[in-house]
Specification:
The complex is a heterodimer of chains A (about 525) and B (about 190).
Chain A lengths: L1 E7 H11 L2 E6 L6 H9 L1 H6 L9 H13 L3 E7 L2 H4 L1 H10 L5 E7 L13 H7 L3 E2 L4 H18 L3 E6 H4 L1 E8 L23 H23 L5 E3 L7 E5 L2 H8 L9 E4 L1 E2 L3 H10 L3 E4 L5 H9 L6 E2 L14 H7 L26 H13 L6 E3 L24 H11 L5 E6 H18 L4 E6 L17 H7 L7 E5 L5 H13 L4 E6 L3 H13 L1
Parallel strand pairs in A: 2-3, 3-4, 4-6, 5-6, 9-10, 9-12, 12-13, 14-15, 15-16, 16-18, 17-18
Antiparallel strand pairs in A: 1-7, 5-11, 8-10
Chain B lengths: L1 E9 L4 H14 L3 E5 L10 E9 L13 E6 L2 H5 L5 E10 L12 H9 L3 E5 L1 H8 L5 H9 L7 H12 L4 H18 L3
Parallel strand pairs in B: 1-4, 4-5, 5-6
Antiparallel strand pairs in B: 1-3, 2-3
Classes of the chains: A alpha/beta (about 525), B alpha/beta (about 190).
Amino acid sequence: MSRKLMLLGDEALALGAVNAGLSGVYAYPGTPSTEITEYIQENAVARERGVHSHWSTNEKTAMEEALGMSFCGRRAMVCMKHVGMNVCADPFVNSAMTGANGGLLVAAADDPSMHSSQNEQDSRFYSAFAFIPTLEPSDQQEAYDMASYGFELSERYGTPVMVRLVTRLSHSRSVVDCADVADEERELTYPPADKTRQWVLMPGNSRIRYKEVLKGWEDLKNASESSPFNSYIPGSDHSLGIVAAGIGFNYLNENFPEGSCPYPVVKVSQYPLPEAMLGKLYDECERMLVKEDGQPFIEEQRRRGVGDNSRVCGRLTGDLPRTGELTPDSVRRALGLPELPHGEKCKVVAGRPPSLCQGCGHRDVFHALNDVLKEYESAKVFGDIGCYTLGWLSPFNAIDTVVDMGASITMAKGAADAGQHPAIAVIGDSTFTHSGMTGLLDAINENTPVTIIISDNLTTGMTGGQPSQGTGKLEAICIGLGADPAHVRTIDALPKNHADMTAMFREEIDYRGVSVIVSRRECIQTARRHAASATRK
Amino acid sequence: MKTDIILAGVGGQGILSIATIIGNAALKENLYMKQAEVHGMSQRGGDVQSCLRISSRPVASDLIPAGAADLIVSLEPMEALRYVEYLKPDGWIVTNTVPVVNIPNYPEGEVLMAELRSHKNVIAFDMDSVAREVASPRSSNMVLLGACAQLTGLPTEGIEAAISVVFSRKGERIVESNIAAFRAGLARANGA
């Protein structure tokens, strides 16, 4: 029995995993991956079974927790946005070496066009160099189907499996055929006797295991050739052969609806690449056009893999744009089809960048900070990842750097080491526990003159208000790490406290050691939601 | 049947509720559909857009190609114009005329209205006033839904039924108020 549901790509993967007997999802929120975990948190079956779905502190802890669950034979999934792959790179790459026991899926949601991200990195590079097979759904139905398929692949080959999503699939809804009944969760079963050694990655064990991983990679290449998600679709016109990866397949079908494509096509949704299919396409066609969302991963491999690479084209040759997500329009141009008739872009339309909400405590922090910093000749403010990144925009223009989760504190420390004063870090509460605490310990151990403002809105705001792992503990964490309690100060981020806040900032900037100021005010969005649900009750 | 709709507005205005309701109505008609929406940073007072595609045949792309949109449905006049290159030559623009001015370089009202009027098929009026009159200031999006309902290719009764389904959790009063706003938008589009 099945039923039809309207689901986001993220939700389809989530429900697919629950229906395949998932025992735990581990994640840190990050656009466009957040809705996978949120869906499982709200899913009735998952709730009834007590499927683990509590947010993790960061992607590294999430990956390791999921690996622990897999070690015990149960099915686990880790979810993150693409840059989360950087944070969990250590356990991710090494999980190929340990292998998986219970099915282990790593969902990485890439953000081509950087709708809500700082770069366009493509997670397929990670899985390729780690020797981890990857599934890349072309639509919501495949996202659903690939959860169960991915768990089976993971268990059959004893390896974690990546599911690579992109924004336009993660955040697009469609009708999905879903099973009515969820599979049972797996029993606790530990790695068999001949597989226990690979879970201890000492050099002697790893050298043996690495050879097995490489051998397994050959088996996985064969699995890709017979995967239900990869296919060679014949065509009569051999002037062009098309490789359509993931969502690129939809843009092809948009332009050649319902099987009307005259060219042979290789649909790629499972990696390692189906080399035999691609080789056949290359040999029989005059040119090979690679359509993939994100970076030119397949295109680069193909250009490396053949002697005469002049017949491979795509993003590297300018047939498709080098940057940004694929669109039906860019694919249409690459196929040499005429544009549909349409008007010009309207010239009077102005850009409308996002901004901090009215009533947001981050605003009070930036107002106070800007007022104080006028008094110093060359203050530098190191920002971080979250809503407060918007402090770079006018009217605040309040921060000088934004790099990655936690970098505000460590960059401020490095700047102070270089002789910069004032060196100020502005970081949110959730980002602080994600990756700021370790940097704070560095600063404390050297009593580096930095002023760290933790702008605490009691939530992970940017991604829609998920619980923040440090709520109620921030001052205790800082003092516990060794910060001088006299310089761990708290203030409510409210307009009426403007004078007190500026005074506090000034005092702590002038103190030549580590200070932490926790400026606290609940996120206006979550506060409204809490108020509304209180009224309903 | 095939209708490609671009929904536009400013973060927080409620365009995604419109998408949910049309989607619900399309599902009842057993139609295929895809709806790409924007989450994350783009929600904070910035421009927000959603592609909604409904069809009796399978829908391939989640995004609407340039020149394929039958309809641009917007809660804000400048946001309606942001996507005109996606509109079919005989496509329709249905928009609220009340501007959200949260940027320093927002175009002059006259210039904006002249641009709107330069398009062939436009339904544009002050939807906030209509919403205030018949329901509540927060139902401008349902006035907009009413104003574009007959251009979606879906039966208007089906859309009205979907409003009840989508808002049922919030109680009878909210459902009625949203339906009143929807009907007022519909009547206004019919020249009543």
